[in-house]
Specification:
This protein is an all-alpha fold and about 300 residues long. It has 13 helices and four strands. Helix 3 crosses helix 5. Bound molecules: zinc ion (2 copies).
Length: about 300
């Protein structure tokens, strides 16, 4: 492995850095205020069923953009798919507002290469808050030039075209639900749809995915051998669409399945559905012998 300085880059300097911090501050802080506003709303008048359906109907595909798209497809290449599905996964991933596809993949590959060391961008050795969100305020990112997978993304015109439109897609992610709210609730529906189906959905997707970096490197079960602190934390299985089986993931990072079954790993269920429609193939899964070889002594398969 080459030196750290070659592969960690600055997140920007001067005005660019200030702008980055201001936007990040807004992205992290505004959703907390929105949760407060939602509680106030809830006390004064219930959200409509339309708002709740909108929340779930946007949460699942956008969270899957992160788990199936960014993580299992773009980073770990655990299955192959068509160009159309690849583009849909890319757009859904950008709607989650977790940065550009190329940078997300670089940071995550870096995490697997340096888990639990000082070089790990969200290392749990610096505390849970740092691992959860604090790391994003530091002026360092993994260099996309450091990995073959991200160099391929940099050369991919589809992906770079989408990454450059990150700001526009961010705006659609929040405001796009407003017109849907108008259809079922008029102008107050616009407000409650943006609050619940936009900002709070965005808050939930962020905190559940961030909890993989924090809680799933601190609390939980360790059924497989892996050279780091990662854990399987089953109560988070559904809201993280199966990604909370993070110990299993660190043991078998290339596997399309992280949970123990399709029902506790919704991301894997989505990949199986794609496969049933002939939209996913070459799905990589550990064999029984590979699971057995890494299982901790005394654990059942
Ligand atoms: Zn991890
Ligand atoms: Zn991973």
């Amino acid at each position: 492995m080459a030196s750290r300085s070659r592969h960690l880059i600055s997140a920007g300097e001067g005005l660019q850095r200030q702008l980055h911090l201001a936007i990040l501050g807004l992205v992290v802080v505004v959703p907390y205020a929105a949760v407060g506003a939602a509680v106030w709303f809830l006390w004064n008048r219930w959200f409509s069923w339309g708002d709740l359906i909108l929340l779930v109907a946007t949460y699942i595909p956008i969270a899957a953009g992160v788990t199936v798209g960014l993580h299992r497809y773009f980073t770990h290449r655990s299955f192959e798919t068509t160009r159309a599905v690849r583009l849909i996964l890319a757009v859904l991933a950008l709607l989650a507002l977790e940065g550009t596809i190329t940078q997300w993949v670089a940071n995550h590959l870096w995490h697997h290469a340096h888990a639990d060391t000082d070089d790990d961008l969200h290392s749990p050795i610096h505390g849970l808050w740092h691992a959860h969100v604090g790391w994003m305020f530091q002026n360092r990112q993994a260099d996309p030039q450091a990995f073959g997978i991200t160099r391929a993304l940099l050369a991919d015109r589809d992906i770079q075209r989408l990454d450059r439109r990150f700001g526009l897609i961010a705006l659609i992610s929040i405001a796009g639900v407003g017109p849907i709210g108008y259809l079922y609730g008029g102008w107050s529906g616009v407000a409650s749809a943006i609050l619940l189906g936009g900002v709070i959905r965005f808050f939930l997707v962020h905190h559940f995915t961030w909890s993989i970096n924090s809680l799933c490197h601190a609390i939980g079960d360790r059924p497989y051998r892996s050279n780091d602190s990662s854990t399987d934390l089953w109560p988070l299985a559904w809201p993280t669409l199966g990604e909370a089986f993070h110990r299993t993931h660190h043991a078998f990072p290339w596997s399309a399945r992280q949970g123990t079954a399709w029902w506790n790993d919704p991301s894997y269920a989505i990949i199986r559905l794609l496969a049933a429609g002939r939209l996913a193939w070459n799905i990589r899964l550990p064999t029984a012998a590979q699971y057995a070889a890494k299982r901790e002594p005394g654990r059942q398969g």
